[in-house]
Amino acid sequence: LKEPRHPLIAEIKPLTDEQATAVETVRVAMKDPSDPSPVFLLKGVTGSGKTEVYLELARDVLAQGKGVLFLVPEIALTHQLVSRVERGLGEKVAEWHSGLSDGKRRDVSAYLRSGKLRVVIGARSALFAPVQNLGLIIVDEEHDATFKQEDRVRYQARDLSVVRAKLEKVPLILGSATPSLESLERVREGKYRFIELKNRFSKQGLPELEMISLREEPLVEGIQAMITERTRERIQETLDRGEQVLVFLNRRGYAPFLLCEACGQVDECPNCSISLTFHIHPRSIKCHLCGYRADPPEECSKCHSIEIHPKGAGTESLEDDLPKLFAGVTIDRLDRDSVTSQKRLDEILTAFRDGRTQLLTGT
Description:
2 domains, three-stranded parallel beta sheet, globular, about 375 residues
């Protein structure tokens, strides 16, 4: 494992009254012998400092010689949290997710089993990391649908974290600004304990939100993606101020499907009965559920027409379209297809953090 990029000295930030109350609530519950595995739903508005609450409780657990398991929904979030948690705990932190090579996973597993590493941050598969003498499980953004694995072995990591917490007799914290309905129902039933952070850590207000209707606003012509003229203007204004832009699109690939314009035929996955996503790099049609892949058809399988065209937009086509709208801007893409290794993920995030990438798109 690489050495941390900073001295291992914990940076402890003072807590707000709300944060301190939340921490004390958990501490008191952790001492209750009648419930060795309490589950807490920590609801906090964006910027309320939920991570500082996590870190304070993690420091308590580490001081007792125990380990911490920290789950996040996306691999990209794993990367950005590692440095922050290492600074906050003054301890090396292991990453665990599907993007690790077999060799790296073996090394991390060995360090965890030996106790040389006691803190793991990772995506849903980190739930199975062999943390020794586990003392706390944290699931951040517990509402996120990506905690559910749909292919191969199907499981919901958030729900299984409740099972592991009970098996290991440790507390579990589920954090979110927008808790899932399932967790809120567990609170109503009295199965989970509810803690709320109502105020932001800083005095700044919430960001201004603007909803733009794709039906009412004129669209930019000549591109695959449905981007309105007003959206393009807002992005350009932001770039002109020397600021960076994130453009999210919840579709991988170039287009969600290929459509025969003669008869309306859309090729579906033979295993899952969903439309096959069209990819340019490499050129193929894929099922994002089971992994089925085929070459794009030269003609319609139903009427044999050659009038087959991609419909809709994905992150690949968005990456192609954005340079047409914003010339001279450095653009990169972050999704499962573009991140082929841990090194590539580090490169993308570091370039954006350092300001070398001005516009980042992805899922």
